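Researcher: Quick test of sequence recovery. Tokens follow.
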């Protein structure tokens, strides 16, 4: 997994969310966009760290990192449900 590619995806997600929040005339759109991306990545990390105790984890790949950065907590939850039911 190329770190430059992942960095480009994360920066693109921040810019995308910042534009969306700016269109919605939100206060501090860049701060909210960074928060959305970081919350998704933190949720992915939390699931994988707690996987030591629970045995449930999401494999870290380019797709899972991009989905969690763009989709946030709902994307991580969806990946976790899919991984649990189709394992």
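Model:
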């Amino acid at each position: 997994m190329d770190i430059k590619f992942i960095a480009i995806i994360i920066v693109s997600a921040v810019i995308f969310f910042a534009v969306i929040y700016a269109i919605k005339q939100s206060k501090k759109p860049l701060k909210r966009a960074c928060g959305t991306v970081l919350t998704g990545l933190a949720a992915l990390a939390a699931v994988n760290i707690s996987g030591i105790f629970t045995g449930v984890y999401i494999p870290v790949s380019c797709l899972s990192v991009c989905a969690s950065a763009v989709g946030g907590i709902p994307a991580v939850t969806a990946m976790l449900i899919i991984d649990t039911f189709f394992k």
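The mean pLDDT is 84.
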